[in-house]
Fold:
Amino acid sequence: MSIDKETVAKIAKLARIKVEDNELEKLSVELSETMSWIEQLSEVDTDGVEPLTSVVDMDLYKRADEVTDGGIRDKIVANSPESAEGFFVVNKIVE
Amino acid sequence: MSNLIQGKTGEWEIVIGLEVHAQVIAKSKLFSGSATTFGSDANTQVSLVDAAMPGMLPVINEYCIEQAVRTGLGLGAKINLTSVFERKNYFYADLPQGYQISQQEIPIVGEGEIEIELPDGTSRNIGIERLHMEQDAGKSIHDKHPTRSYIDLNRSGNCLMEIVSKPDMRSADEAMAYVAKLRAIVRALETCDGNMDEGSMRCDVNVSVRKIGDELGTRREVKNVNSIRSVGQAVDYEARDQIRMIEAGEKVTQQTMLFNADDSTTRPMRSKEDAHDYRYFPDPDLLPLVISQQYVDAINENLPELPDAKKHRFMQEYGMKLYDASIIAGDKPRAEYFERVAKGRDPKLSVTWVTTELMGALNKLALSIDKSPVSSEQLGELIDLISDNTISGRIAKDVFAEMLDTGKSASNIVEEKGLKQVTDTGALETLVDEVIAENPDVVANYQSGKDKLFGFFVGQVMKKTQGKANPAIVNELLKKKIG
Structure:
């Protein structure tokens, strides 16, 4: 599978990673190589094999509906670049 | 087919599908143990999981699963014993994870169906496509600062049920009736409080138009529609706007619109379309959710009576009309109030007093039934006074008005104002004789065949007793005296 430059630019944008135009060609080659390496898996015949969702044989762990957390506002906002009145403060989101 | 819209080039049909986000009633969040209470101080109900701190892992709240299953059963829908949580990837300031944990390929609830009642007294079935569980995002507040937005993550991670309808609705009325019914169902099930003001229930409205018999047109999705009235307005505006565009030779493009409640219009969201490339994939932090049929059956056995079943029962048990029954049964506090009043009392009187007198008065006062100045016990007492002939139905209306004003009990008011019905036949007979003696002309007219004049005599006796005479006794006495 080959990943063209447009696709690289698109996924970079979706992932909010800044990629300069002159880097696109190199990344396109690298990602295409990675994809073809992964594609080796398709050589395995998986007809009739149940998808494996976990390597451990267990059920989804569930918790009871109790309030056991929260109330740590200072810790929550401690690492934010800017906060006020207990809120995170960010650039205006215009919509 | 009153649902069609007449355009310049012929008649158009509107096709509507709705996505309703309903916040699950639970003490704690879907994947963390923080509280879900509405209106708390900013970021006080946020755990390190909700703030997406590195290394934090989601652990599912078992009660949220139960609530989603219960809602699915209430929608008459198929429950999927295995469902899968996936990550829906997008960036937004109030989504700290950079993805929302949701269900895409395999939701917990599949297809179902609900019945809606329309203003013309008919009903229709509307298909449910699916219901899935997902995390809510935080809240952005834009009006605290001119150039900055404030983010509160208290809502982040609350459990939502996204309920998706089939594109089965054809008018604003149907869309509104659908949301009203959905709200009645989740309220009856106590899986969502249905409070649209507080955002516990939010709607996205998908609208397209087509000529009869044509393929589905291109749809636009209206977001931010937060009342039942707004749902109707959004449908009307979108339908008119899309027909205008097509008839002017423009093309409707698939677009996300925002509803503006101030002028009931919609406008395109500015964000680019590739924001909708969500790159779903199964969340590696969560195993598939597997439940057993026994678990589902146990929830099913304990389902409360649903609004439709209640509606049909009210019609049968109390002789209510479809309209009254759907109004009373469609609202849980109203239905409970009514049943407390009706218990052990005359069904007809109870229906009339709750649906006509009480509901009428509450509408005028713009109060919901749980804020009624007259409690069900007080209204019941008033009905008892009518039933045992202590007061007449007419006097009862005056007493009721006084009860609304003062909050006093019916018996107190009757006592204080001396409103007890006069049932003393002897006393009433004297009054009847007086009325006959005072109106010889009318008596002659009546006896010459003008039957309608009978009411005049009843009225005169009532007047002499300030309305307190027992009408049945007065009628009987008059019949005896003047034939």
Observations:
- The radius of gyration of chain B is 30 Å.
